[in-house]
Specification:
Low-confidence stretches: none
Strand order of the largest sheet: 3-2-1-4-5-7-6
Number of domains: 1
Largest sheet: 7 strands, mixed
CATH architecture: 3-Layer(aba) Sandwich
Strand content: 25-35%
Number of strands: 7
Shape: globular
Number of helices: 7
CATH topology: Rossmann fold
Distance between the termini: 29 Å
Order of helices and strands: HHEHEHEEHEHHEE
CATH superfamily: Vaccinia Virus protein VP39
CATH class: Alpha Beta
Helix content: 25-40%
Amino acid sequence: MTNQSFPDAAVTWNRRFEADGYIFGTEPNAYLRQQAPLWQPGSRVLSVADGEGRNSVWLATQGMIVDAFDISAVGVQKARKLAEAAGVSVAFSVSDCDSWPWPADAYDGVAAIFMQFADPPMRARLFANMIRALKPGAILILQGYTPKQLDYKTGGPPLPSHLYTADMLRGAFAAMEILELREYEADLTEGTQHHGRSAVIGLVARKV
Protein backbone atom coordinates (compact mmCIF):
# COMPACT_ATOMS: atom_id res chain seq x y z
CA MET A 1 0.00 0.00 0.00
CA THR A 2 1.23 3.49 -0.76
CA ASN A 3 1.79 6.38 1.55
CA GLN A 4 -0.10 9.29 0.00
CA SER A 5 2.23 11.92 1.48
CA PHE A 6 5.42 10.18 0.29
CA PRO A 7 4.36 8.20 -2.81
CA ASP A 8 7.97 7.55 -3.90
CA ALA A 9 9.43 6.94 -0.47
CA ALA A 10 12.23 4.64 -1.60
CA VAL A 11 13.40 7.16 -4.20
CA THR A 12 13.13 10.02 -1.70
CA TRP A 13 15.14 8.28 1.00
CA ASN A 14 17.73 6.85 -1.38
CA ARG A 15 18.45 10.38 -2.58
CA ARG A 16 18.73 11.70 0.95
CA PHE A 17 21.01 8.89 2.10
CA GLU A 18 23.31 9.30 -0.93
CA ALA A 19 24.76 12.35 0.81
CA ASP A 20 28.27 12.01 2.21
CA GLY A 21 28.40 10.95 5.82
CA TYR A 22 25.44 9.94 7.96
CA ILE A 23 22.69 12.52 7.73
CA PHE A 24 21.24 11.62 11.15
CA GLY A 25 24.68 10.97 12.64
CA THR A 26 26.10 7.71 13.92
CA GLU A 27 25.11 8.04 17.57
CA PRO A 28 21.83 6.51 18.79
CA ASN A 29 18.75 8.56 19.51
CA ALA A 30 19.05 9.99 23.04
CA TYR A 31 15.63 8.78 24.17
CA LEU A 32 16.40 5.26 22.96
CA ARG A 33 19.73 5.32 24.76
CA GLN A 34 17.99 6.44 27.95
CA GLN A 35 15.30 3.75 27.84
CA ALA A 36 17.20 0.81 26.32
CA PRO A 37 18.33 -0.58 29.71
CA LEU A 38 14.76 -1.90 29.96
CA TRP A 39 16.04 -4.57 27.56
CA GLN A 40 18.62 -7.08 28.72
CA PRO A 41 21.67 -8.18 26.70
CA GLY A 42 20.57 -11.07 24.57
CA SER A 43 17.11 -9.58 24.00
CA ARG A 44 15.80 -9.82 20.44
CA VAL A 45 14.99 -6.30 19.28
CA LEU A 46 13.56 -4.92 16.04
CA SER A 47 14.57 -1.45 14.83
CA VAL A 48 11.83 -0.14 12.53
CA ALA A 49 12.64 2.18 9.59
CA ASP A 50 16.24 2.05 10.75
CA GLY A 51 17.73 4.39 8.15
CA GLU A 52 21.53 4.44 8.15
CA GLY A 53 21.78 2.17 11.17
CA ARG A 54 22.64 4.44 14.06
CA ASN A 55 20.09 2.88 16.40
CA SER A 56 20.33 -0.78 15.39
CA VAL A 57 24.12 -0.79 15.46
CA TRP A 58 24.22 0.82 18.89
CA LEU A 59 21.70 -1.72 20.21
CA ALA A 60 23.92 -4.50 18.90
CA THR A 61 26.91 -3.00 20.74
CA GLN A 62 24.82 -3.27 23.92
CA GLY A 63 24.50 -7.02 23.42
CA MET A 64 21.08 -7.13 21.78
CA ILE A 65 20.19 -9.52 18.95
CA VAL A 66 18.96 -6.99 16.41
CA ASP A 67 16.83 -7.14 13.28
CA ALA A 68 16.42 -3.91 11.32
CA PHE A 69 14.79 -2.82 8.11
CA ASP A 70 14.43 0.30 6.01
CA ILE A 71 12.86 1.13 2.68
CA SER A 72 16.13 2.62 1.39
CA ALA A 73 18.70 0.24 -0.07
CA VAL A 74 21.24 3.08 0.15
CA GLY A 75 20.51 3.57 3.83
CA VAL A 76 20.80 -0.15 4.56
CA GLN A 77 24.12 -0.31 2.70
CA LYS A 78 25.46 2.48 4.91
CA ALA A 79 24.05 0.71 7.98
CA ARG A 80 25.95 -2.45 7.07
CA LYS A 81 29.17 -0.42 6.87
CA LEU A 82 28.45 1.14 10.25
CA ALA A 83 27.90 -2.29 11.80
CA GLU A 84 31.11 -3.60 10.26
CA ALA A 85 33.05 -0.65 11.64
CA ALA A 86 31.56 -1.27 15.08
CA GLY A 87 32.36 -4.98 14.92
CA VAL A 88 28.76 -6.10 15.45
CA SER A 89 26.20 -8.12 13.53
CA VAL A 90 22.71 -6.85 12.66
CA ALA A 91 20.20 -8.69 10.46
CA PHE A 92 19.42 -5.91 7.98
CA SER A 93 16.65 -6.03 5.37
CA VAL A 94 15.45 -3.65 2.67
CA SER A 95 11.68 -3.42 3.06
CA ASP A 96 8.84 -0.99 3.46
CA CYS A 97 6.67 -1.14 6.55
CA ASP A 98 3.81 -2.99 4.87
CA SER A 99 6.01 -5.62 3.22
CA TRP A 100 8.04 -6.50 6.31
CA PRO A 101 6.77 -9.95 7.46
CA TRP A 102 6.10 -8.91 11.09
CA PRO A 103 6.42 -12.29 12.82
CA ALA A 104 3.94 -12.59 15.69
CA ASP A 105 5.16 -12.63 19.30
CA ALA A 106 8.77 -12.65 18.12
CA TYR A 107 10.55 -9.73 19.77
CA ASP A 108 11.52 -8.72 23.29
CA GLY A 109 11.59 -5.11 22.10
CA VAL A 110 10.74 -2.79 19.25
CA ALA A 111 12.52 0.52 18.67
CA ALA A 112 10.43 3.01 16.69
CA ILE A 113 12.30 6.30 16.38
CA PHE A 114 11.01 9.26 14.30
CA MET A 115 8.79 7.32 11.90
CA GLN A 116 7.01 10.51 10.83
CA PHE A 117 6.93 9.49 7.17
CA ALA A 118 3.75 7.47 7.84
CA ASP A 119 0.40 9.04 7.01
CA PRO A 120 -2.50 8.13 9.35
CA PRO A 121 -3.62 4.95 7.50
CA MET A 122 -0.06 3.63 7.24
CA ARG A 123 0.64 4.64 10.83
CA ALA A 124 -2.36 2.63 12.06
CA ARG A 125 -1.11 -0.47 10.20
CA LEU A 126 2.43 0.10 11.42
CA PHE A 127 1.47 0.49 15.06
CA ALA A 128 -0.75 -2.62 14.92
CA ASN A 129 2.09 -4.62 13.38
CA MET A 130 4.57 -3.47 16.02
CA ILE A 131 2.24 -4.62 18.77
CA ARG A 132 1.72 -7.94 16.99
CA ALA A 133 5.47 -8.53 16.70
CA LEU A 134 6.12 -8.07 20.43
CA LYS A 135 6.10 -11.00 22.79
CA PRO A 136 3.80 -10.73 25.81
CA GLY A 137 5.66 -8.65 28.38
CA ALA A 138 7.93 -7.11 25.73
CA ILE A 139 8.75 -3.41 25.57
CA LEU A 140 8.15 -0.80 22.85
CA ILE A 141 10.27 2.35 22.83
CA LEU A 142 8.99 5.10 20.53
CA GLN A 143 9.89 8.71 19.91
CA GLY A 144 8.38 11.25 17.54
CA TYR A 145 7.69 14.90 16.99
CA THR A 146 4.64 16.73 18.32
CA PRO A 147 2.68 19.41 16.43
CA LYS A 148 4.70 22.13 18.17
CA GLN A 149 7.63 20.97 16.05
CA LEU A 150 6.05 22.88 13.17
CA ASP A 151 7.17 26.06 14.95
CA TYR A 152 10.77 24.89 15.38
CA LYS A 153 11.33 23.42 11.90
CA THR A 154 14.42 21.55 13.12
CA GLY A 155 13.42 18.16 11.71
CA GLY A 156 10.49 16.07 10.59
CA PRO A 157 7.91 16.68 7.87
CA PRO A 158 5.81 19.88 7.82
CA LEU A 159 2.64 17.78 7.95
CA PRO A 160 0.41 18.02 11.04
CA SER A 161 -1.21 14.69 10.20
CA HIS A 162 2.13 12.92 10.62
CA LEU A 163 2.94 14.28 14.08
CA TYR A 164 2.17 12.64 17.41
CA THR A 165 0.11 13.78 20.37
CA ALA A 166 -0.21 12.11 23.74
CA ASP A 167 -3.89 11.40 23.16
CA MET A 168 -3.17 9.82 19.78
CA LEU A 169 -0.48 7.53 21.17
CA ARG A 170 -2.56 6.70 24.23
CA GLY A 171 -5.38 5.58 21.96
CA ALA A 172 -3.16 3.72 19.50
CA PHE A 173 -1.50 1.72 22.27
CA ALA A 174 -4.51 1.38 24.58
CA ALA A 175 -4.06 -2.41 24.60
CA MET A 176 -0.59 -2.02 26.10
CA GLU A 177 0.55 -0.98 29.57
CA ILE A 178 1.94 2.53 29.14
CA LEU A 179 4.99 2.94 31.36
CA GLU A 180 5.89 6.43 30.18
CA LEU A 181 4.24 8.95 27.88
CA ARG A 182 6.00 12.29 27.98
CA GLU A 183 5.86 15.41 25.80
CA TYR A 184 8.91 17.63 26.22
CA GLU A 185 11.40 19.86 24.46
CA ALA A 186 15.03 19.00 23.83
CA ASP A 187 18.02 20.20 21.87
CA LEU A 188 18.68 17.43 19.38
CA THR A 189 22.06 16.88 17.74
CA GLU A 190 21.31 14.01 15.37
CA GLY A 191 23.32 14.79 12.27
CA THR A 192 22.16 17.60 10.00
CA GLN A 193 18.51 16.54 9.82
CA HIS A 194 17.52 16.63 13.50
CA HIS A 195 19.42 19.58 14.89
CA GLY A 196 18.29 22.22 17.35
CA ARG A 197 15.42 22.87 19.73
CA SER A 198 12.72 20.30 19.12
CA ALA A 199 9.25 19.38 20.40
CA VAL A 200 9.20 15.64 20.98
CA ILE A 201 7.22 12.90 22.66
CA GLY A 202 8.46 9.66 24.13
CA LEU A 203 6.51 6.48 24.78
CA VAL A 204 7.50 3.33 26.61
CA ALA A 205 4.84 0.61 26.68
CA ARG A 206 4.67 -3.07 27.63
CA LYS A 207 2.61 -5.65 25.76
CA VAL A 208 0.20 -7.40 28.13
